[in-house]
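Chapter review: from sequence to fold.
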Amino acid sequence: MANKPPLKKPPDKSQLRRELQQQIQDYLTHGGEIHKIPRGVSGRDNPLEGLPMAFFNQPKAERTPIPEVVAALDARRQKTSTSGKTTPSKPKEKIIYDDFGEPIRKIWVEE
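The token string follows.
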């Protein structure tokens, strides 16, 4: 087998913090400005207005029925409901644990 390169570890929080601080310093040294926005100010144009209702302000659309698909679904539903055969449930093994998560014993449960 060919040697695979080792997996790259994800950066930890201190590395991310240093990288973000470096990016901020680079932005400021190249003429960028940071404006302080007062707390509670919204990013919307008029924060006193409610949020726009984008999904529920349109009239209800008419649906086009597809009779052959509906008939096939109904036929399939009737075929499965008329079989009447039920498979007996088999007992399943269940493990009983103590308060510390250690297995105590196994029992058989009908479900």
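Two observations follow directly from the output. DSSP finds two helices and two strands in the chain. Residues 13-29 form the longest helix (17 residues).
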